[in-house]
Amino acid sequence: MATTPRTPGATDPAPPDGHRPRDEGRAGGDARARDNVRVDDGTRARDTAGPSADRLLLAAARHSAGRTTAICLLSTVTAGCALALPAALGHTLDLTLGHGPSPYLWTALCAALIGAEVLLEALTAFVTGTTNARAGSWLRRLGARRLLAAGPHHASRFTPGDLVTRLTGNAAEAGTAPTTAATGLAALITPLGGLIALAFIDLWLAAVFLAGAPALFLFLRAFARSSSDSVSRYQRVQGELAARLVEALGGARTVAAAGTARRERDRVLAPLPELSTQGRRMWQVYGRAVVQGGILVPLLQTAVLAVGGVRLAAGDLSVGELLAATRYAALAAGVGSVIGRLNSLVRSRAAARRTAELLALPAMPYGTRPLPPDGPGRLELRGVSVTRGGCEVLRGVDLVVPGGTTTAVVGRSGAGKSVLAAVAGRLTDPGSGQVLLDGVPLTEADPVQLRREIGYAFERPALFGDTVGGAVAFGAYAPDGPAVEAAARAASADRFIRLLPRGYGTALADAPLSGGELQRLGLARAFAHAGRLLVLDDATSSLDSVTEVQVGRALVGEVRAGTRLLIAHRVSSAARADRVAWLENGRVRAVGPHEELWQLADYRAVFADEPEDSAEPEAERADGTGAAR
Ligand SMILES: Nc1ncnc2c1ncn2[C@@H]1O[C@H](COP(=O)(O)OP(=O)(O)OP(=O)(O)O)[C@@H](O)[C@H]1O
Predict the structure, then answer these.
(1) Is the dihedral of CA 269, 270, 276, 282 positive or negative?
(2) CA-CA distance, 539 to 460, in Å (whole number)?
(3) Residue 382: helix, strand or coil by DSSP?
(4) Residues 438 and 335 in one domain
(5) Overall number of domains in the chain
(6) How is the protein disposed in the membrane (predicted)?
(7) Would the pTM count as exceeding 0.90?
(8) 167 lies in the same domain as 95
(9) Of 278-287, 357-366, 438-447, highest mean pLDDT
(10) Residue bearing the CA closest to ligand 1, atom 1
C-alpha cells in the first residue's frame, strides 16, 4: 500500500477524466484550476469592481477614523514645522550677521522646530505603521469571514494561491489607503506652502520655480504612470507564479507518477521571463526617475539660487532670505511625494478591488429555526436543481430519505452524486428547489445546530488538529477521549492508530498515512460527530473490501443511529442500504431496494466498471445482494 506523508488539506488535482475524488475543499464545486475567477455561468468575475473597492476603502477609513485623524493632524503639524523652519533659519542668519537684536531666541526656536519635526515624524511613522497593520488585518478578517460564509462551492472560484495573495498582500496594501490619504494632505501642504513662502520672499524666485514646474510635473506624472503599471504587472505575475506553484505542490504525487516533473517545472516557471521583464522595467523606471529627478530638482534649486544671488547683489534680498528661499525651493520641489502617494493610493485601490471581489461572494443565508428535538433526520429534496459551469448537473431532483434509514446514491461518473451530497449536507445551495431536514428548510435552520446535526465524510478528507486524536475530535464540538476511540474503532482506525509512535497523541506531521488510513480517520471524525444525518461521500472507496464491510456493520451498530446518505460506487454498498437512489444525468431515474433495481439491465450496467477488488469477500449472489448487512 502506498504510503504518503500526511499533509493536512493536501489533495491531488482531479484527473482529467473519469472518476474524480471528492475532497473537502471541493465539496460540491470543483476548483476550476488555472482559471481562478471563472464563475458558475461561465463568465469571468469582474476585474473592475470599482465602486465596491472604493466603498471598501471608505469603510477601512471609517474603521480607523480616530487614528487616521491623528495621523492627519500630526503630519499637518509636521508640515507646519517644516515650513516655519527655513524662515526661522533665515531670520536667525540675518540676526547673526548683525542686522538686528541678539539671535539666541531665534536659535532656540530653530532648535525647537527641528526637534519637533523629528519627534512628530517618528510619532507619525509609529501611528501609521500600527494603523496600517490594523486596517490590513481588519480587511483580511472581513475577506476570510466572507469566504467562509460563502461556502466551499463559491470559494472554489478562486485558486488557493490566488486566495492567499488576496488575503495577505492585497489586503495589507489596501489597508494602507487611509493613512496614505491622511499623510497625502500634509504632503500637499508642504510643497504648496514652500511655493507660497517663495513668493512671499520674492516674486521672481517663485516665477523661476514655476517656469520649471511643468517639466517637474511631467516627469513625476510619467514616473507615477509607468511605475504603477510595472508594479501592478509584477504583482500579477507573482500571484500567477504562486498559484501555479500551489497547484503543482498539491498534485506532486500525480506529477511524479506521470513522470511530468520537468514539464510541470516548466509550466510553473513559465511566467518567470515576464516577471523578470517587469522587475527590470520597475528598476529601470525607478533608476530613470532617480537620474532625472537628481538632475531636475537640483537644476530648479540652482535656478532659484542663481536668481536669488542676483537679487541679493541688487540688495533686494538678505542673506537669510536667500537661505530660506533655497530651502523653500527644495520643499516646493517635494511635490513628488504627493505623486508618490497618489501612486500608492492607485495601488491600494487596485488591491482593494481584489479584496472586494472576495466580499462580493454571496454569503449562504441561514436562519434561526431550530430543528425539532429528537427528529429522526428525515431528509427531503424538493425539485432541487443545481447549475455548474453553465450546465444543469441536478435537474428537479425529488428525493425523500426517511428518518433513520440508509439511502445509497448510485449513478455513473458525473451523474451528480457528489453535488447531491453537497446539497443534502448544505455545503452548497441549489439554484432552485428546497432541501429540508425534519421539515425545516436548511436555509432557515440555525447554522450551529445544523453543523452539529449533519456529519460528513469525504473520499479525501483534509485533517485538522495537532494530533491524530485531535484530528478525529475536530468538529463543531469536541468529543471526549473514549468517544474518539469508539469512533475510531467503528471506522476500523483504532488498530493502526495504536501502532503509531504515540498512539492517539501522535503529531499529525509524524503520522504517515496511506489513502485508506486517511479515509478511516475521516470516517472516524464523521462517526464521532454523527448527528441525525450522516453523509458519506464515497468515503470508503480506498478501503479494502473486508474493512469496508466491517465499517458498514459498525455504521449500523456502533455509530449514533440516524439517517445515512451514502454515495456509493460498489455493489456491496448499494446492497447494504435500505434503498437506492439511482441518478442519471442529474435526474433521479429510480428509487427502490437494490434487489429490485438489480433486475434492470441499465442499473446493473452502472456497476459494470466496478473493479474486481471491490467484490464482496463473501460469495455474492447473482443479484448482487450477497453483502452482509
Ligand atoms: N464547480 C463545478 N463547475 C463545473 N462543473 C461542475 C462543478 N462541480 C461539478 N461539476 C460537474 O457536475 C457534474 C456532476 O458532478 P459530480 O461530482 O456530482 O458527479 P459524480 O456523480 O459524483 O461523479 P463521480 O462518481 O465521477 O465522482 C459533473 O459533470 C461535473 O463535471
Answers:
(1) negative
(2) 8
(3) strand
(4) no
(5) 2
(6) Multi-pass membrane protein
(7) no
(8) yes
(9) 438-447
(10) 29
